[in-house]
């Protein structure tokens, strides 16, 4: 489980890793890991291979 705290905006195509703690705005196409969370990479295929059965 990840924790997202406060009034933050999560962009499109964002991957938040398990156990990440996010208390900041995350731009689109980002990968966030860690506690405290930090953006390790911005890439257009951030969620490729992770997202299934999208509604």
From TrEMBL:
Gene3D superfamilies in UniProt: Hexapeptide repeat proteins
What InterPro entries has UniProt attached to this entry?
Trimer_LpxA-like_sf
Q: Which domain of life is it from?
A: Bacteria
Alphabetical list of SUPFAM superfamilies matching this protein: Trimeric LpxA-like enzymes
Identification of the protein by name: Serine acetyltransferase
What's the source species for this entry?
Answer: Candidatus Scatousia excrementigallinarum
